[in-house]
Design brief:
The protein is 31% helix and 22% strand. The chain has 171 residues and is an alpha+beta fold.
Length: 171
């Protein structure tokens, strides 16, 4: 569990390692502390989350190239990046709401909104519906999260939507 979290997340906390497995926290804490004593993990203090312990492998902290700025990901609300809401808010400053069970009149983002990640920024949330009968992807609601550069971001998102539509409608 710890190795998988480190591989997937890079920087981990006890909560992020044990997401949906709280009973494993004591054992995971002991393992993290043992690896930290051996220098296999480095403790980190993250701005905005100083009271939450985080760790990373030393090699993960080595300077890396930034992700390509145009890389666009349309994420499911159940994506491992989105599901741990506190972590999403800490790293991206975005608090996602899953609104499928919220009365329609009280929805802000839409029934099944998908966050859109461009580079290292959540740029928008899209409430999409697949119309299989007509072979189309419908945009029910588009909510901007990011400020600035919307024309270029919209172009990139529309390109990603074309690929997403082909994927959703593939037989």
């Amino acid at each position: 569990r710890l190795d998988r979290a480190l591989r997937a997340q890079g920087i981990v906390s006890l909560d992020s390692i044990c997401h949906l497995a709280a009973a494993q926290k004591p054992a995971i804490r002991r393992l993290v502390e043992a690896r930290a004593r051996r220098g296999e993990l480095v403790p980190l203090a993250l701005e905005g989350a100083e009271t939450i312990e985080h760790w990373a492998r030393p090699e993960a902290l080595a300077e890396r190239a930034a992700p390509p700025p145009g890389l666009v990901h349309i994420l499911s609300p159940f994506d491992p990046l989105v599901l741990p809401r506190k972590r999403l808010a800490l790293f991206f400053g975005y608090e996602h709401r899953f609104e499928a069970y919220v009365p329609a009149a009280k929805r802000v983002l839409g029934y099944f909104a998908l966050p859109v990640l461009i580079g290292d920024e959540i740029a928008a949330a899209l409430d999409l519906k697949t119309d299989r009968a007509n072979g189309r992807l419908l945009i029910r609601k588009w909510t901007w999260i990011a400020e600035g550069g919307r024309a270029e971001k919209k172009r990139r998102i529309e390109e990603a939507l074309a690929r997403f539509e082909r994927f959703q409608l593939a037989r």
